[in-house]
Amino acid sequence: MENYKCKSVGIIGSGIQGVCTGLQLIKKGIPVTIFDRQDPLSQDFKPASYGNAGHFSPYAVLQLNRPDILFDVPKMLFSSYGPLALKWNYVPKMINWFFYYLKNCNKKSMMHTAKNMHQILSLSNDAYEEIFQEIDTNGLVEKKGIIYVWTNKNLKSRNLEIKVRDELGIKQKLLSQKEVLELEPNLNPVFDAGIIYESAMHARDPHGILKQIFKLFLKRGGKFIQTNIKSVEQSKNDETILRSEKEEYKFEKSVVASGAFSKQFTDQLGEKIPLDTERGYHVHFKGQEKLISRPVIFLDRGFGMTPMNQGLRAVGTVELGGTENPLSKKRIDYVIRCAKELLPQLGAHEDEWLGFRPTLPDFLPILGPSLKNKNIIYAFGHQHLGWTLGAITGKIVSGIVAGEKTNLDLSPYSSKRFN
Ligand SMILES: Cc1cc2nc3c(=O)[nH]c(=O)nc-3n(C[C@H](O)[C@H](O)[C@H](O)COP(=O)(O)OP(=O)(O)OC[C@H]3O[C@@H](n4cnc5c(N)ncnc54)[C@H](O)[C@@H]3O)c2cc1C
C-alpha cells in the first residue's frame, strides 16, 4: 500500500459529509468530482446540512437507543404535543428498522454507541478548526457554549446522561434555573434546571459554512456536476461507475455520501442496510435572534433554538415517516408552540422547512467500504450529529479511500454489523 495513489474519486452528495470528504481528498492530490442534484451554491440547496440547528456538539454521545427512552415511546407517539411523531402510512416500511432499534435499545448497546460516538466526536471540533484556518468564518461561527434546560419530570434520564458523560470525561457544568436565567434572561422560566457545554460552538449559518468549504474544494481543483445519480456499481475490473439519466461516469473509487438517500445505492449493491430517516423541522423568527445569545435546547420537548443570521431558528422533533411524505403542519405548529413557550415575546414565523436526518437503528454512522465492492466507500448515517461530524468524517473517509493507516478503531462503523 505504501506507494499506492488513488487515481480518481466520484462522490454522490454535496452535503457536509460529501464536501468535507472531497476537500480532504483534493488536499491529498487525488482528483475528485462531487455529484449532487442541487448546486450547493444555489438558494435551492436545502438538505439536512442546510437546515440543521447548527450545533457543533462533541459532547452528544448518548443517542436515542436508550432503554429509558424506549418506555416513553408509546406515550410520546400518541400525544399530539410530543417530541416524537409517526406517519402511520410509513410504518410497514420501517419494520426492519424498528426490529434493529429494539435490538439495540439496551444498556450494553447504548454504551457501545456512546463510546464509539465519543471516539469520533472528541476529534470533531479540531477537524473543523483545521478547515476554519483556510476559509473565512467571519460572522458564521460563534463560541458561546450551548445550554440544555429541563423540568424535573424526567430526572432519571437527565441523571443517566450526566453520568455517562462524566464517565467519558466530557466537561459539563450544571446550572440552576437562576443561573440559566443569568445567561439567557429573556427565557420564560418554565424549566427547573440546565447544563452548559461551555466549549461548544454553533454555526450562525450552516449553509454559509458549507458554501465556503465547497468553494475551497473548487479552488483547489475539485469538480462538481449537478445531476441526479441513478446508480452506482463496481465493474469486473474494479472500476466504479456512476450513472445519471443520460451519462456514465467512471472513477477508480466512489463515495456514497447521500445522507438519508444513500439507501437506494446500498440496496442496488445488494447490502441490507436498515438506513432510514428521522424527519426534523425548522422555522425562522426573523430579526428575533438577539433574544438569546447561544443555542438553547428544551430536552422535555425535543426542540431547540439557535440564533442565526437568518433569524432565530427554532428546530426540532423526530418524525418517523420516510423521505416522501409531505411536510406535517402539525409538527411545524409544535415547533412554534415550543418556541413561544420559552420565548412568549416571539412574533410571526417564516420559512417552514422539513429535513431528513440519516439514521441507522444503532445510531452509529457507516464509514467504510461496501462489503461486496471494496472500491465503493460509504459515508452516511450521521443522524442528529452529522453537522458536528462533517469535518472528521472527511478526514476518516478520505484516509480510507487513500488506503492510509489509522489509529482509530473503525470496525464499529462498518456495514458488516447489519449483514
Ligand atoms: C432538524 C434537524 C436538526 C439538526 N441539527 C443538527 C445539529 O445541530 N448538529 C448536528 O451535528 N447535526 C444536526 N442535524 C443532523 C445533520 O444535519 C445531518 O446528519 C447532516 O447534515 C447529514 O449530512 P449528509 O452530508 O450526510 O447529508 P445531506 O446534508 O442530506 O446531504 C446529502 C446530499 O446528497 C444529495 N443526494 C442524495 N441523493 C442523490 C442522488 N441520487 N444524486 C445526486 N445527489 C444526491 C442530496 O441532494 C444532498 O445534497 C440536524 C438534522 C435535522 C434534520
List keywords for this structure.
alpha/beta, 13 helices, 21 strands, 6-stranded mixed sheet, 419 residues, globular
Shape: globular
Please bin the fraction of helical residues. 25-40%
> How can the largest sheet be summarized?
9 strands, mixed
| Strand residues, percent | 15-25%
Number of discrete domains? 1
Cα radius of gyration in angstroms: 21 Å
CATH class: Alpha Beta
**Total strand segments:** 21
User: What is the CA-CA span between the terminal residues?
Assistant: 27 Å
Low-confidence segments, given as residue ranges, are none
CATH topology: FAD/NAD(P)-binding domain
* Number of helical stretches of at least 4 residues: 13
Q: Label the structural class.
A: alpha/beta
Q: Quote the average pLDDT.
A: 96
CATH architecture: 3-Layer(bba) Sandwich
Give the ligands present: flavin-adenine dinucleotide
* Full CATH superfamily name: FAD/NAD(P)-binding domain
What does this protein structure show overall?
Helix content is 30%, strand content 24%. The chain has 419 residues and is of the alpha/beta class. It has one domain (9-418): FAD/NAD(P)-binding domain, CATH 3.50.50. The strands form four sheets. Strands 4, 6, 7, 8, 15, 16, 17, 18 and 19 form a nine-stranded mixed beta sheet that branches. Strands 10-2-1-14-21-20 form a six-stranded mixed beta sheet, with helices on one face. β12 (240-243) and β13 (248-251) form a beta hairpin. It starts with 8 loop residues before the first strand and ends in an 18-residue tail after the last helix. The mean pLDDT is 96. Flavin-adenine dinucleotide binds next to α1, β2, α2, β15 and β19.
